[in-house]
Amino acid sequence: MILASIKKNKVLDSRRTEVFILITLISASFVLRFYGVGDSGFNNDETIYVGQAASLANFDDFREHFSIFRAHPLLMQFFVGLSILTFGLSETSARLVASIMGTGVVLFSYFIAKLIYSKPIAIVSSLILTFLPYHIIISRQVLVDVSLSFFLILNILMVILYLRNNNNLFLYCIGACSGLSFLSKEVGMIVIIATLFVLALDKKINTKNVFIILSTFLLVSSPYWISYLFIEDAQISINQYIAWQSSRPPNHDNFYYLDILAKESLGYPLLFLVFLFYIYFIVNRKLWNTQIVSIPLVWIPILVLFYQSISIKNYTFLYSVIPLFVIIGTSFVFGSWLSSFRIKILVIIILVPIILISNAYFLYNFVFLIPHNPILGSESIPYMKDVSLWMKKNTPENSTALTLYTHMSNNIKYYSHRDSFSLQSNNNPSYDKIDNADFLIISKKINYLVYEKIQLENAQFLKNEAQKMDKYIKKYNATPVYISYEYYTDEDGKTLSKPAIIVYSIN
Predict the structure, then answer these.
(1) DSSP β-ladder status, 495-505 and 400-405
(2) Does position 11 have pLDDT exceeding 80, yes or no?
(3) By the 8 A CB rule, do 131 and 58 touch?
(4) What is the pLDDT, as a whole number, of residue 336?
C-alpha cells in the first residue's frame, strides 16, 4: 500500500514537472513570436493576405485593391479577419493569429516527439524549435504557410494517435486536418496524399478508412470547391493562377532548399544530425519493426521532394517540415549509440546552444554584426510603410503611383488606399501589366513615381525596371517630393545616410 502510494506520488510529481516545463516552453514560444510584432509594417505577402482579410471583415477601403478571390484559399485570411473584427485593424491583431499558430506548432511537435520517441526528446526538440530563428521569423508574419504548417503538424499528430489507439475518431480528425491544410494553401493537397501513403505503409488502411478520411477531407475543404463551381470570380481567379504558376520558369536552382536548410533554418550541425539518424535507422533493423518511429522519416522526404518538384521555390515553404527535422535530429542524440546517461546530458548541453547559434540569422546579426535579411524585400519594410503613410496624408485620393516592384505597389494600396502600378509584375494575373507607361503618364493616369532604390542591392532582376524608372524621371522632369533615408555606419564608425525610397511628382 505504501509502495503504491509512493509510486503514485512519483507519477504525479513527474506529470507536474512535465506540465511546468511544457507551460514554460509554450509561454516562451508565444512571447518570442508575438512580442513587438506590431513594430514593423507588413511585407508584400502580408499586405495581400491582410488586405483580403480586411475585405472579408467588411472594411470597404480594402475591397477595391484586394479582391477576396486571389492566389490561395482563404482559411488564414478568415482567421485574421476574425482577429481584426475582435481587436481592430493593426499589424498586431493580424499577426496575433500567426503567433498563436506558430506556438501551436511547437506544442504539437512536443506531443509528436513524446509519442514516437520519449519525453526527454520531446522537451529538447521543443526547446530547440522554440528558439530556432527561422521558425520564429516566419511565425511572426501573416503567411498562409503558417496555417498550413499548423494543420499539417496537427494532422501528423492525429495519424500517430490513430496508430496508437486504433480509434476511428482520429480518422475524422485526420481528414479534417488534411482539408484545413488544403484550405490554407493549395500545396496542402500533399497532406492527404502523404497521410494515405503513411497509413498504407503501416498496413492501417482499408476501404472504410479511406472513405472516412476522404469524405471528411472533401467536406472540410468544400468551401474551396463550391466557390470554384458556383462563383465566377473565384473560378476565373483559380484558373488564371493555375495557368500562371504552371508556366512560370524556376526562380531558384535545385540546391536552393539544401542551402536554406544548412544555412538559414537548421544550420549545419542539426542537418548533420538528421543525416546521421537516417543512416542509423537504415542500419538498425530493430527500428524497422516499430512503424510509428518511421513517420517523421517518411514525411520529410515526401514534403521536401514535393516542394523541390515545384518550379517556384520559396524561403517559407520549408517552414512546415522544420519541426520534423528538429525532432529527428534531436532523437539521434538520445540513441543507443550513447550508452552513458551522463554523456548524453553533456552532449545535449553542448549541442543545443551550438544548434541555436549556427544559422546565418544569428551569426550575421549577433556575431558579425551585419544586418541579415533572409527574405527578399524585408530590408525595405520600414521605408515602404513610411512612404505609404506619407502618400495617404499628402496626395489626392484619386492619385495613382508607378513603382519599381510589386512589393511597394501593394504596400501603397494597403496603407494609403491609393491605386498603384508596378513596372515589374512577373505576369501575375492580379496585377495590371504596364505595356505603355508613357501613355499612362501623358494621360495623367499616373501622378507619382516611387523609386525603391533600396531594393536594387539584393534584386538584380529589377535592373531593367530601374533603367526604365530613371528614363521616366528624366523624360517627364519628375520632382522629388519625399525621400525616405536609410541610415548606416561606415568603416570609421560614422553614421551616414542614403536615399532608400524616393517619391517623385509628375507635373
Answers:
(1) unpaired
(2) no
(3) no
(4) 67
**Helix ranges restricted to H, 168-267:** 168-184, 189-201, 207-220, 222-230, 232-247, 256-259
Cα distance between residue 48 and residue 69, in whole Å = 11
Cα separation, 349 vs 330, whole angstroms: 12
Q: What is the 3-state secondary structure (H, E, C) of 467-489?
A: HHHHHHHHHCCCEEEEEEEEEEE
Q: Is residue 471 part of a domain?
A: yes
Nearest residue to 429 (alpha-carbon basis) of 237, 187, 143, 246: 237
Q: What is the DSSP letter of 249?
A: P
Q: What global pTM score does this model have? A: 0.91
φ, ψ for residue 377, nearest 5 deg:
95, -15
Query: Quick one: 342 and 384 in the same domain?
Result: no
What is the grid cell recorded at 324? Answer: 520534423
User: Are both 196 and 293 inside the same structural domain?
Assistant: yes
Identify the bridge partners of residue 484 per DSSP, sorted by sequence position. Answer: 501
Q: How far apart are the first and last CA of the chain?
A: 93
Q: Identify the sign of the CA torsion 149, 89, 398, 450.
A: negative
Amino acid at 341: F
Grid cell digits, residue 98: 500567426
pLDDT tens digits, one per residue of 426-462: 666 667 777 788 888 998 899 999 999 988 877 778 8
Residue 291 sits in the same domain as residue 255: yes
